[in-house]
Structures are given as C-alpha cells and as structure tokens.
Amino acid sequence: MPVTAIKEYVAVPRDQVANFHGKQLVYVSWDRHLLFAAPFLICLPPETPFRDLVEGPLKALVSPDPDAAAIDWQRVEWLKSNQPWTPDFDASLAANGIGHKDQLRMRTAGPNSLAPAA
C-alpha cells in the first residue's frame, strides 16, 4: 500500500557518535552460542583498552553461559567486518581500528555448548 506524506519528511539519526558524549557503541557477538539472541551492545570511550572491554563488560555479559568460565581469552578467534582479526589487548579501541557501531565476533575453540554437534 503506498504512503503519501503531507509534507517533506527528514529523518534525523539519533545514534550518531556525537550523541554519546565522547563514547561509542560497539557490538560483540559470540558465534555458535545461541543463549544470546543478538550481539551485545557496549558503550565505551574510544580510549578504552581492548583488555578492559574483555575483562569488564564482555566477561560480565557472557557469564550466564555455562561455558563462559572455560573461555581462554588468548585463544579466542576474533572477526571484525567479518574478517579474521587479531586485537592488541593493550591498545585502545580506536588504536585497534574499532569505530562507532562496529561489530566484533568471537569464536571459542572448545566451549560451544548450545551449538548443534558438528
């Protein structure tokens, strides 16, 4: 069904980085784990070291999964823009090339409790 506007409609995006007071949004998903229906959305300053992202909000967010305690964070396979990527844990998000609304995906070698047997 066609829609006819009575005046010009101008959309103003509200999720621009300028609206987050010096912080940015980062999406992180855990591949092959169906306990979490969507990527986590984390809001952090771009100066945050990658290690702090993992040790703080990411570990807390995955903790409900029974396999979370078994994650070897040094062996996690990371993807950024759907490409294999190796983060520098001591560098900031910005130095790692992680920008506003970027999505990171992580794959764990052993823990895959909720994925079907391959």
Structural overview:
The chain contains one helix and five strands, in the order ββαβββ. The model has no long low-confidence stretch (mean pLDDT 89). The protein has a five-stranded mixed sheet with strand order 2-1-5-3-4, covered by helices on one side. It is of the alpha+beta class. The chain has one helix spanning 50-62; strands at 24-30, 40-44, 77-80, 83-85, 102-107. The protein has a single domain (18-107), classed as Ubiquitin-like (UB roll) (Roll). Helix content is 11%, strand content 21%. A hairpin with a 2-residue loop joins strand 3 (77-80) and strand 4.
Summary of the model, kept short:
By secondary structure, the chain is α+β, with helices and mostly antiparallel strands. It contains 1 helix and 5 strands, in the order ββαβββ.
